[in-house]
Amino acid sequence: MCGTPAWLRLKRLFGNAFMKKPYILIVEDEAAIAELVSVNLRHAGFECEIAGDSAEAQNQVFGRLPDLVLLDWMLPTMSGLSLAKQWRSQPETKHLPIIMLTAKAEEVDKVAGLDAGVDDYITKPFSTKELLARMRAVLRRRLPDVIVSGSSITVGCISLDSAAHRVTAEGKEVKLAPTEFKLLTALLQQGDKVLKRETLQNMVWGHYSDIDERTVDVHIKRLREALMAVSAAAAAQVETIRGMGYRLSKLAL
Ligand code: CA
Hints:
By secondary structure, the chain is α/β, with parallel strands linked by helices. 43% of the residues lie in helices and 21% in strands.
């Protein structure tokens, strides 16, 4: 997974809801900083545009809504903070993910930024690594973990269509035996809650089955193998929680 570009991991994570590269608007009046951030983000698989002041940022945001805005606090004419407040008050931009970038380090300023409704706050100078980590956290929070559409449910890169009795991982078909299909259905339905072996046993084999808990482990292993044949990322989503049971995780970015 390490060498996979961020946009591809996002695409895998969010399926069809995120087929494009995340589009980031960088609002920064210092051209050298804007350019540096832009180069680093493009390298990490994001699509970026730069706005040098608030008016330009307004135009760009209403022209094409970004997936996230990196907003400098100190801007000519109108401050980033005022701009953030304005965006939060308008229906089109109310939920726009915003990370403030600023040289202001005092606690009071951070509070003002967060009060204005920004999602996070990064003090300059910051490392690209930190910026990317915070951007991912904001994007993760802002995007759905589970996508349900019709008879199909998607968690991470795994989709299961109960009507068509079909499972795909990263869009590729996964061949599952009936028991593994039921197991995966049970795991998908639980979101990211841990399922005890006993619960899985009841859900898949019924209350009166006489299988033992080791049988659950055997079928979990088969489920992982079937997913692995198509996608290592999908197989990794089936987590063993030591001493507790199993869980279907979202993918870590
Ligand atoms: Ca500035």
